[in-house]
Design goal:
This is MFS transporter. The protein contains 18 helices and no strands. The protein is mainly alpha-helical. Helix 6 packs antiparallel against helix 12, helix 9 packs across helix 18 and helix 10 packs antiparallel against helix 18. The longest helix is centred in the first third of the chain and has 30 residues. It is globular.
Length: 393
């Protein structure tokens, strides 16, 4: 539950920016087309921080322990969150989004690693589902807090919640599997081990690729839903915060459904395949259906969120595929490389947009992510019954 609450605060901050992007930028003097270009710049800075932080916290999790990451990451992003509420220029905003990104990168991987190692293999899927579901509730909470309070106060609330959570973590115990591995003379947290062995590298790459559709939807279709609404000719302007809130409401139910379905079918791969196919259907509906009514558009955003509900399974597979001495490194870097993939995906989207238009550009990029995910999933190992008490050599 402590890991789950940490991820709730993590996701609150991560998606608060999507909710307050337009009002916060307007408040510091950004107008017109710069709202989109500066918004993409800030998003890229946040994601760049998560890429760097993912590597740092992942290595730290295997070298120093899962708990050190849970403490350090939440302290950093809580302070950065408070700083975000004090910005007055785009430059300040960009720097603090980068720092926040570094801090946000450690929470999910360390939490999932700890949960998978503490719980018996028969029920660890339930544990990671709880963590992921609580995180998505944090994204929904960001919408309601931003609706009730000024954007600066919303950032202060996130920082305060994070600092309060540090108190709860005092009595959390370290993973026994990590303590056991620490006593052995094995190389822990060596990032090069993921690249100096072909089998390990391909497993690592497959883990990243199966998560790409999730962040194509979140980072492009939902974050920039106002721009898509305009391109699709909707009857009313889209409120980005509402689209984010509804998408993550859908993801709450998707995460619960995929988690329980995985336990019922005793398979991670079958359920992820189902949700990737669902995602492809709803991406096509979002971009191609002749929908003009704003309510129908919001319903499609909710369904897209539901199809994104394999996030918990995706991170769980990453943790289960590798030994104890690399598990935190993988479980922390993989979701952050997927998040960071928004940078090249957004770049491709903006590259194609002038020549083929907003909708066709999104179709091309979305089709690419879905194809890569399906190919990677086909070759991926099933991990549902895998014993995690081993090390990589």
């Amino acid at each position: 539950m402590v890991a789950a609450l940490g991820y709730l605060v993590d996701m609150y901050d991560l998606f608060l920016f999507s909710v307050v992007r337009v009002p916060s930028l307007k408040a510091i003097g950004v107008t017109g087309d710069a709202l989109l270009s500066d918004g993409i710049f800030l998003l890229n800075m946040q994601m760049a921080g998560m890429l760097i932080g993912g590597v740092f916290w992942g290595v730290m999790g295997d070298k120093r322990g899962r708990l050190s990451v849970l403490f350090g990451s939440i302290l950093l992003y809580s302070l950065a969150n408070i700083g975000n509420g004090l910005v007055n220029t785009v430059g300040q905003y960009a720097l603090l989004r980068f720092i926040a990104g570094v801090g946000l990168a450690g929470e999910l991987g360390a939490g999932v690693t700890l949960v998978t190692e503490v719980l018996p293999k028969e029920i660890r899927g339930y544990g990671t589902t709880i963590v992921a579901t609580m995180g998505v509730l944090g994204a929904i909470m960001a919408y309601f807090v931003a609706d009730l309070f000024d954007w600066r106060i919303s950032y202060f609330i996130g920082g305060g919640l994070g600092l309060m959570l540090l108190v709860l973590r005092i009595n959390v115990f370290e993973s026994a599997a990590f303590v056991k591995a620490k006593e052995k003379s094995v190389d822990r947290g060596n990032l090069l081990m993921l690249f100096n062995n072909k089998t390990r590298f391909l497993k690592y790459l497959q883990c990243i690729l199966i998560g790409l559709p999730i962040w194509f939807v979140v980072g492009i279709l939902i974050t920039f839903s106002p721009e898509f609404g305009q391109a699709l000719g909707l009857s009313e302007p889209v409120v980005a915060g509402k689209a984010v809130m509804l998408a993550f409401t859908g993801q709450v139910f998707g995460d619960i459904a995929s988690g329980f379905l995985s336990q019922y079918l005793k398979s991670r791969k079958k359920v992820i395949l189902l949700f990737v196919l669902l995602s492809s259907v709803f991406i096509a509906v979002y971009l191609l259906a002749p929908v003009k009514d704003i309510t129908a558009f919001y319903i499609i955003c909710t369904l897209l969120g539901f199809a994104n509900g394999y996030w918990a399974l995706f991170v769980t597979i990453a943790a289960e595929l590798f030994g104890t001495n690399l598990r935190a490194t993988v479980a922390t870097t993989v979701p952050n490389f997927v998040r960071g993939a928004v940078i090249p995906l957004a770049s491709l989207f903006t590259l194609f947009k002038p020549s083929v238009g907003t909708v066709s550009s999104a179709l091309l990029v979305g089709g690419l992510t879905l194809t890569l995910a399906l190919v990677a999933l086909f070759y991926l190992e099933e991990t549902f019954k895998k014993d995690l008490d081993y090390v990589e050599k």
